[in-house]
Design a protein that fits this description.
Largest sheet: 7 strands, mixed
Structural class: alpha/beta
InterPro entries: 4NH2But_aminotransferase_euk, Aminotrans_3, Aminotrans_3_PPA_site, PyrdxlP-dep_Trfase, PyrdxlP-dep_Trfase_major, PyrdxlP-dep_Trfase_small
Organism: Pseudomicrostroma glucosiphilum
CATH class of the largest domain: Alpha Beta
CATH superfamily of the largest domain: Type I PLP-dependent aspartate aminotransferase-like (Major domain)
GO molecular function: 4-aminobutyrate:2-oxoglutarate transaminase activity; pyridoxal phosphate binding
EC number: 2.6.1.19
Radius of gyration: 23 Å
Bound molecules: pyridoxal-5'-phosphate
CATH architecture of the largest domain: 3-Layer(aba) Sandwich
Cofactor: pyridoxal 5'-phosphate
Number of helices: 17
Strand order of the largest sheet: 3-9-8-7-6-4-5
């Protein structure tokens, strides 16, 4: 029985029974048989984008800046791991809408929920959650975003937001407020403080800073952009806060072969963090450090659990909050639900931000990061119940199909394929990253030019992968990426490498 026929036969079963049936078939067959998805890529045009995609994008470009667009997609025709473009080319999607699709295109279980009264109500009657939350908002949160199996350990509170940048910015604001509250020792504001805040001047608008890491990425709004240090193109001409950034550890790969020197490099960076916090104490005290578990946009730069444990130690010693930005690493892709779970931190971070694969955005935080009064960290929507329901269903699907452990085991297979290609094409596939990080893997080409040629060569053959940093190829398959897709990826990469070598 194919998965597709079993799912239609199960239409009359309860949702739980249907999920159980699906899980069994998926476990038996792997995700190569994701129901109804194409059997492989199929590129019909001589170039990608083809003429129809080009026409759609040219037309769009008349009314807005779409120069970044790769191809135009026909979303109704996309399925599982595959997308179909305007020219009817079918692509295996290993980029996932910039790492944001988790459980597949046109996922039938999710679309069934989208057709319910509950979802229609939430989507078409969007509340201003901070002032008129639905009576069941707590229940929606507790069944999804705040579920015990999902909520990071030690973080009882949640702030829902609209995207990764707003999640981070809101977390920054919470840290600044908590920092000043601690310094002041009380929550009253005198007249001078209140009046100066209206002039953007101290003491009401104090000179404080956020510390981030060079080559990191945390978003594109004013506050988050000031902590983003990946590429000038994001930052040019935008006024920025004068905030400190320290080196990211320059590790050698494979990590397990360079443990001693990498440890030394990480200790150098930890010392830099300490020094920087001390030096900025008189200039603009550091209220918080923001860090990605794996620098993603910046080129898939890793650090060890030891580094993050040391960072936590230093932030605690110095009285500085620690925000872990899991916007890209979160929700299963690294083989654990949160990437920071692998660090075994003695004390949880103060905040963990999320977006992308969760489809809903926000941050989890400690009680200490609750502002002293309402409206201090606030906006009109404060998130979106429709997205929270979507997140709840994504989580349910991930758990019903054990997609986190599935992704961990697919990662092991993916890594061994990359390792074998690396030994045969050492200049084009080098510095493999993510051996123990599920399918969140990457490698470098010798140059940026070669990387771009490799990404284009894969695309021409119907496999979408992304670039990041200066010369990295990053893989961001969906959580339903299976053995059949892995085979197709390996064949396509090998054909591309052969052509390039
Ligand atoms: C680690 C990280 N933080 C924050 C962001 C910003 O998210 P958004 O583009 O949704 O504002 C991104 C986006 O790529 C990201 O990768």
């Amino acid at each position: 029985m194919t998965f597709a026929s079993s799912s239609s036969a199960a239409a009359s079963l309860t949702r739980t029974a249907a999920s159980r049936a699906q899980a069994t078939v998926l476990r038996r067959r792997g995700f190569g048989t994701y129901p109804g998805q194409p059997s492989g890529p199929n590129v019909l045009t001589s170039s990608v984008p083809g003429p129809k995609s080009k026409a759609v994008l040219d037309d769009l470009n008349q009314v807005g800046d779409f120069r970044t667009a790769i191809v135009a997609l026909q979303y109704p025709k996309c399925k599982g791991n595959y997308v179909v473009d305007a020219d009817d080319n079918t692509h295996l999607d290993m980029f996932g809408q910039i790492a944001s699709i988790s459980v597949g295109y046109r996922n039938e279980e999710l679309e069934k929920v989208a057709r319910t009264e509950e979802f229609a109500m939430a989507a078409m009657n969007r509340p201003a959650l901070g002032v008129f939350p639905p009576v069941d908002w707590r229940a929606t949160l507790d069944a999804g975003l705040r579920k015990d199996s999902v909520r990071p350990r030690g973080l009882s509170q949640i702030f829902t937001a609209n995207c990764g940048s707003t999640a981070n910015e809101s977390a920054y604001k919470a840290c600044f407020m908590a920092y000043m509250h601690r310094k002041r020792g009380h929550s009253d504001f005198d007249q001078k403080t209140m009046a100066s805040s209206m002039d953007n001047a101290a003491p009401g608008a104090p000179t404080l800073s956020m510390l981030s890491f060079k080559t990191g990425f945390h978003g594109r709004l004013f506050g988050s952009l000031s902590t983003t240090r990946s590429k000038p193109i994001h930052k040019l001409d935008i006024p920025a806060f004068d905030w400190p950034a320290v080196d990211w550890p320059a590790l050698k790969y494979p990590l397990e072969e360079h443990e001693a020197e990498n440890r030394k490099e990480e200790e150098r960076v930890i010392a830099l963090v300490e020094e920087t916090i001390e030096q900025w104490e008189t200039k603009a005290p550091v209220a918080a450090v923001v860090v990605e578990p794996i620098q993603s946009e910046g080129g898939d730069n890793h650090a060890s659990p030891h580094f993050f444990r040391r960072l936590r130690e230093v932030t605690i010693q110095k009285g500085v909050y620690m925000i872990v930005d899991e916007v890209q690493t979160g929700v299963g892709a690294t083989g654990t639900f949160w990437a920071h779970e692998k660090w075994d931190l003695p004390t949880p971070p103060d905040a963990v931000s999320f977006s992308k694969k969760m489809q809903a955005a926000g941050y989890y935080h400690t009680e200490e990061l609750r502002p002293s009064a309402g409206y201090r960290n606030f906006n009109t929507w404060m998130g979106d119940p429709a997205r929270a329901i979507q997140a709840r269903e994504i989580i349910r699907y991930i758990e019903a199909h054990s997609l986190v452990s599935h992704t961990a085991s697919m990662g092991t297979q993916l890594h061994s394929i990359l390792a074998s290609l690396s030994s045969r094409y050492p200049t084009l596939v080098q510095n493999l990253r993510g051996k123990t990080e599920g399918t969140f893997q990457a490698f470098d080409c010798e140059t940026g030019k070669e990387r771009d040629a490799l990404v284009a060569g894969m695309r021409k053959r119907g496999v979408l992968v992304g670039g990041s940093g200066e010369r990295a190829v990053r893989l961001r398959p969906l959580l339903i990426f299976g053995e059949k897709e892995l085979e197709i990826f390996a064949e396509t990469l090998e054909a591309t490498l052969k052509e390039m070598a």
